[in-house]
Structures
1.
Amino acid sequence: MLLVSKLSASYGAINAVRGVDLNVKAGSFSVLLGANGAGKSTTLRSIAGLHRPVGGSVKLGGQEISRLSLHRVVKAGLAFVPEGRMVVAPLTVEENLNLSHFSGRTEPDLLDRVYTLFPRLKERRRQVAGLMSGGEQQMLAIGRALMTRPQMLVLDEPSMGLAPAIVDLVFQSIVELHKQGQSILLVEQNAAIALSVCDYGYVMKRGQIVVEGTADALKESPEVLEAYLS
Ligand code: ATP
């Protein structure tokens, strides 16, 4: 489904991502782990069309997407939920959700699907997004991505800055999406939470993948994880 080969990305002289390979299969829930500065966000942003890679390829369902504009990446079937949520503060919940119309993929059942997954968003649909809690804004950011009916949902640290109870709530929704068949690639700092819900994991250090394996295998080697995540 999502095949990333030898992906490299830089900021001037800083080689933030160096030859990364990922293979997220259809229906998989995969996680990219790593310490601060390992290159996780740059990898996701390069996959999502927000950062132009200097080398390698990103294929979604066989289609090369690494040099497409953001708009075309979304049309190709990849939706990205950025770190920090980036909801449009002055717009209401429903206006934020309807922003995804630009993809040309919106269908009437999608709003219902988002509201079924996040009843809180339905309750607050006329609320201005900027006045909502961090957890609600995270739900909105995920909901907005789902409005494009993505084949692949890519999430950058959805737990960031949220209280543990809210993190559980957000992760329950992501797990529910996975149960519904959604393919997901997640970046997460909290390895314990991520490996308890994902089926496959990659660990990144200094721009490279250093370990990969099933979530069960990674969970059983905490010493390996600790060596790479600190
Ligand atoms: P974090 O968990 O802290 O977000 P990360 O694993 O997502 O870390 P990246 O944000 O991808 O890591 O950063 C990878 C490297 O690229 C780091 O050395 C970082 O300092 C550098 N970097 C990231 N963004 C920029 C930028 N806009 N300009 C210059 N260097 C950057």
Note: DSSP finds ten helices and ten strands in the chain.
2.
Amino acid sequence: MIPVDNHLHTRLCGHAAGEIDEYLDVAARRGIKEVGFCDHLPLYFLPPDKTIPGYAMDESDLPDYISMIKNQALQAPLEVKMGIEADFVPGHEDKLENILASHRFDFITGAVHFIDGWGFDNPAELAEYAVRDIDTVYRQYFALIQQAALTGFFDIMAHPDLVKKFNFRPARDLRPLYEETARVFKNAGVCVEVNTAGLRYPVKEIYPGPELLEVFFKHGLPVTLGSDAHRPEDVGAGLPEAIELIKNIGYREVATFSGRQIRFVNI
Ligand code: ZN
Ligand code: FE
Ligand code: FE
Ligand code: ZN
């Protein structure tokens, strides 16, 4: 039984396929009890005349996103929650706070996909790894997710070790960075997303990997589950493996969110 998939995209972001009802059909067929849509928030941190094509919905589409999901939720055979995946880019906190406050979400998922303007998880920007020091990249990435958690804007931290996506790994021991991140997350009161998209990318590993997840467990951080589906057939993908992984580490429940309040479901 899969209690929840809290990370589904929609075609509004420009790089996902399928209709919302198709995502819900697959979820129902796979016995998923609850889903959370979590599409990319408009790129609030760019100047008004700038955009990254096919990266996120336009600001003018945000009300449509919300009404489309509300409408589908009424007829769906399962619980449907309204989430959003919000990039954290330092220096634009006021804009982010405003846009998040103007809508009622069940949960807000914070994500870091940019290190000083470099879209490090974007295949189109892969060449940049050749000119960066990978130890520094990891340090910058983890500093950003810590800073994101401490803003208090986010209920969930998305794919916590996304920086490993293309399987570039630093030589040094990451344990101290993991410990520090877990302490900061705990102080910030965030939930951690166990995201299976990594299984579909070169790293071929769930985010977070077992070592980081163990550190999160030791620090008492709650977890939720997300497939990060960008097409209906990926709804719930890898979640049985994710549940197996978190159970082996010691978790007995996963978090779900309603109106920004956390609840726990046994696994
Ligand atoms: Zn996406
Ligand atoms: Fe993401
Ligand atoms: Fe996503
Ligand atoms: Zn994502």
Note: The chain has one domain: 5-266.
